[in-house]
Amino acid sequence: xxxxxxxxxxxxxxxxxxxxxxxxxxxxxxxxxxxxxxxxxxxxxxxxxxxxxxxxxxxxxxxxxxxxxxxxxxxxxxxxxxxxxxxxxxxxxxxxxxxxxxxxxxxxxxxxxxxxxxxxxxxxxxxxxxxxxxxxxxxxxxxxxxxxxxxxxxxxxxxxxxxxxxxxxxxxxxxxxxxxxxxxxxxxxxxxxxxxxxxxxxxxxxxxxxxxxxxxxxxxxxxxxxxxxxxxxxxxxxxxxxxxxxxxxxxxxxxxxxxxxxxxxxxxxxxxxxxxxxxxxxxxxxxxxxxxxxxxxx
Amino acid sequence: xxxxxxxxxxxxxxxxxxxxxxxxxxxxxxxxxxxxxxxxxxxxxxxxxxxxxxxxxxxxxxxxxxxxxxxxxxxxxxxxxxxxxxxxxxxxxxxxxxxxxxxxxxxxxxxxxxxxxxxxxxxxxxxxxxxxxxxxxxxxxxxxxxxxxxxxxxxxxxxxxxxxxxxxxxxxxxxxxxxxxxxxxxxxxxxxxxxxxxxxxxxxxxxxxxxxxxxxxxxxxxxxxxxxxxxxxxxxxxxxxxxxxxxxxxxxxxxxxxxxxxx
Lengths: 298, 263
What we know:
Strand content of chain B: 25-35%
CATH topology of the domain at 11-107 and 224-261 in chain B: Rossmann fold
Largest interface: A-B, 45 and 53 residues
Mean pLDDT of chain B: 81
Structural class of chain A: mainly alpha
Strand order of the largest sheet of chain B: 5-6-7-3-8-9
Number of strands of chain B: 9
Largest sheet of chain B: 6 strands, mixed
Number of helices of chain B: 8
Shape of chain A: elongated
Oligomer: heterodimer
Mean pLDDT of chain A: 88
Distance between the termini of chain A: 43 Å
Low-confidence stretches of chain A: 1-5
Helix content of chain B: 25-40%
Shape of chain B: globular
Number of domains of chain A: 1
Low-confidence stretches of chain B: none
Strand content of chain A: under 5%
Radius of gyration of chain B: 21 Å
Largest sheet of chain A: none
Number of helices of chain A: 13
CATH class of the domain at 11-107 and 224-261 in chain B: Alpha Beta
CATH superfamily of the domain at 11-107 and 224-261 in chain B: P-loop containing nucleotide triphosphate hydrolases
C-alpha cells in the first residue's frame, strides 16, 4: 500500500483503524487470552483479597483477633440453640454432634459468604471497574479467596472444637486439603455467576439471603439428613445429600470427626464433589467472561 | 500497518459516532414509596416496550474525532457535559451504546483512587494501587521509595505506616496522585482535579504530568482551568450537552468557549 500525499482522506473510521492497526477499545478478549490476562493479575487478586480481609476489623480494638473470635461466637450460638435447647442431634452422641454442627456451620458459611460477596463484587465496585483495566473476573475470584482465608481462621477454632470432643488428628485429616480445593473452585464459580447476575440486577443482594437460608436448612447443617428423613422416600434424601453444600460439609466431617464414618456419606461422594466443582467453576467462568465488556455500564 | 511517511500523522485514537447512555435505577419520576415501585413493576408486566423504573441518561451523543500521536488534546465544557464519560469510553471502561472507539494499545486513565482502601496503611496502598494498575511486584518495589518521596507523606514523620484514614484530605490526595503517576502510559488520560495539595506539591505534580506527557504517545486532559488547557494542549475538543461543539487548535476553540461562558 503506497501513501499518496493525503492518504487518509475519505476513509471511514473502521478503514482508518484497520489501516493503522488500531483495535476496538474495551473489546472482550478471547477466552484463552482472558485466562492469560487473569493469570497475569494473580498478585493483584491475592493482594486485594488480603487487603479486604485486613481492613474488615481494622477499626476494632481487638483487631485481627476477631477473625477467630467471630467464628468462635458463631459456633457457641449454634451450640446453645441446636445442641442444648432443641437437641437436633438425634441419632448422634454429643461427642459427634457438636463437631458435626460446627463443621457444618463453617463450611456452609464459606459458600454462603462467597455468594453474598459475589453478588456485590461488580455492582459494589463500579468505581474500580470504571477507573482501571483488569480482567473483571479478578473481583469475584478475589472475594471467594477472601472467604477462603476467612475459613482458614475458622478452621483453627474448628480444630479446637473437634479435638475438645475427642477426635484427634490422624491420616484422614489430610482430606481437608482436597475438600477445600474443590469447595473453593465451586464457590469461585458461584461467585462469578452471581457477580454477573448482580451487576445486571442489584436487587439480588436483597433476595439472596433468603435463598441462602433456605439452602442452609435443606442441606443438613444442623441435622443429619439420613436420620431426619428416614421416613421419607429414599430419593428425597439422595437429592439433599448430593447437593454440593451437603457434599462438602459431609466430606469435611468425615475427614475431621473420628466417629463420623463413611456410612454417613452418599454413594460416589468424591465424584460428585469433583463434578460440582468442575461444572460450576468452568461454567461460571465462561458465563462471566461472556459479559466482560459490559460490566462498566452498571 | 503501514510505514509512516515523514510528516504524516498517525492516528492513535479514533472515535466513531460514539453514544453513551447511563441507566439509573430508582430515579424514575413519581413517588418513591413502595406502592409506587410495585405499581411500576405491575405496569412493566403488561409489556411496555421501554424498561420501567429505569431512567436513561444520554451522556454523550454522537461524538467523532481522530487523535494523532504526539497530540495533547484538551476536553472542555461545562459541568455534566460528558467529558469524563467520554474519557472512560476511550479507555474502554464504559462500553458505548452505539458507535466505536478504536485505540492503539491500551489507554489508561490516570486515577487509582477506587482501588485504595482507607483502612489500610499507606504502605500497603502503594502496593495495592500499583498492582491494580497492572505493575508487577518488582516494578512496585523498585518505585516504592520514589512514590513515597514524591508524595511527601513522610516529610512530617512516619505516616506511611499509618492507615490512610488518618491522613488529612490533602495528604490522601497527594498519595493517590503519586501512586497513579508512578506508571508510564501509551495513551494517557488525565481527569481534572488531580493537581491537588499545597502549592509546593502542585508544582511537583505539574512537573510530573509534563514528564508523563513526554513518554505518552497521546494525552487527553480534562480540566476546568483554561490556563492549564492553554499550557498543555495543542488541540481542544469542546463538549456541550454530550455533543461535540467545536474541535480545533487550542486558541481558536478557547476564544469561542470563553465567549460562550462569558469570561
